[in-house]
Amino acid sequence: MVSRRNFLGGAGAVTAAVSAAAVSKVAMAALPEPVLQTSPDTMPPLLPSTGRPYNPVVTLNGWTLPWRMNHGVKEFHLVAEPVVREMSPGFKAHLWGYNGQSPGPTIEVVEGDRVRIFVTNKLPEHTSIHWHGQRLPNGMDGVAGLNQPAIPSGKTFVYEFVARRPGTFMYHPHADEMTQMAMGMMGFWITHPKQKHPLIDEVDRDFVFLLNAYDIDPGAYTPKIMTMLDFNLWSWNSRVFPGIDTLNVRKNDKVRIRIGNLTMTNHPIHLHGHEFLVTGTDGGPTPKSTRWYEVTTDVAVGQMRQIEFLADEEGDWAFHCHKSHHTMNAMGHDVPTMIGVDHRQVVKQITKLVPDYMVMAERGMADMAEMTMPLPDNTAPMMTGDGPFGSVEMGGMFTMVKVRKDQKPGDYKNPGWFKHPPGTVAYEWTGALAEPARFKAESAGAMPAKNMPATDIEVQVRKPVRGGGGHAGH
Ligand SMILES: [Cu+2]
């Protein structure tokens, strides 16, 4: 729901109220009314009501900022402020963002538009906005100290420039950048082409999201801003699975997805079931001769990537970062690997001291998704998400592209789980297994088993088999 300025809810309200008081009411009255978003839902595409027409994008778990047309200039009003962001159901973070949410709203304009952006600072410290990737006058580039004085708390600055080249851009502070980006200040910017462009195809669905990361201790609300690499929440638009909406499309839709990376590491983004082309980068549309099909594309820090594919296979297709630690939620990374270790003697000793002691990960980590160890009040389970066949055992940067033949054009609603045609789901085999095929060399005894190096160290292990594998043979 988009609401007008009246949002000061949640525990971030104290800081917000204090700094908001510093912004004069008279000054605000002359500005375009700042539009606020209080919900983390995906807003349907915002069709342009004034200015040149274009096909709007859909921001995953986000929204597009409406503008006011003032003598041919598109005027937007961004308010930098503390926000409460629901990162997944039941888990809220106290972030900094724009107009009620983190990330801020997507700004959509058309190539050649003159754009004026009012930026009101309701943070407890100064800020600025850098318009990442844009051609603009040097003094509008937003690097505090270099291109402009920083915007003090309580003040409003104006940025104005012509959106010169079509493409995919981002915006973020360039003042106390480490803190402000770790707190969630960022947003997306799309400049649509003003006419048919030889390198920019029209598509049926056009999705955008930012890659961002947070380090929030389980039970806490505020990110640890000093973290450089070991983040525990890998998010898309400040949401973690199962909080990230699915990308719902109609079969045979041409789909574009634009991704920007404002974390501190690269993310190989992987789509199941389809091949895509990288049709655009931070520098604009890619020449056709440079495009090749892929199923994974790496998005490095500070980059934008635009992928396109024909959604011609029905189903619920996983779409995620391929770094497996990035499809996990809050977890410690210093836990030793326990696979194959028989804890039973140790557990007996420990439970004398700690009655509720629970052994983790002696058969792998999959049990983590189902186990019932109590979590602190405010956090996201490490891996979770119920699918039609059980736990999906994922977190973080994971969602699905849902392709359906009966999804209506322009309908972005989640169609539910895919109904598989009979005989098209992997199933348990209960018949006899055929003799394994062997290579000739193996049967000729290239390395007979009796010559295998023996070990005289007795290791207490159990096979990692569900249902407590036997101890026989030791
Ligand atoms: Cu990643």
Tally of helical segments: 5
Cα-atom radius of gyration: 26 Å
CATH superfamily of the domain at 2-202: Cupredoxins -  blue copper proteins
- CATH architecture of the domain at 2-202, by name, is Sandwich
**Separation, N- and C-terminal Cα atoms:** 63 Å
The biggest beta sheet is recorded as: 8 strands, mixed
Identify every distinct bound molecule in the structure, by name, code or SMILES: copper (II) ion
Count of beta strands = 26
Q: Give the strand content.
A: 25-35%
Question: What is the CATH third-level topology name of the domain at 2-202?
Answer: Immunoglobulin-like
Low-pLDDT regions:
4-21, 465-474
Helix content: under 10%
What would the average pLDDT be, to the nearest integer? 85
Organism: Aquariibacter albus
Domain Plastocyanin-like: 90-195, 221-336
GO molecular function, one term: oxidoreductase activity
Signal peptide: 1-29
Could you characterize the architecture of this molecule?
This protein is 7% helix and 31% strand. It has helices at 13-20, 25-29, 177-182, 344-353, 440-443, and strands spanning 2-4, 35-37, 58-59, 68-70, 73-88, 91-98, 107-110, 114-121, 130-132, 156-162, 167-172, 187-192, 205-214, 233-236, 247-250, 253-261, 267-271, 276-281, 284-285, 293-294, 296-299, 304-311, 315-321, 384-387, 390-394, 398-404. Bound molecules: copper (II) ion. The site of copper (II) ion has 6 residues, from loops.
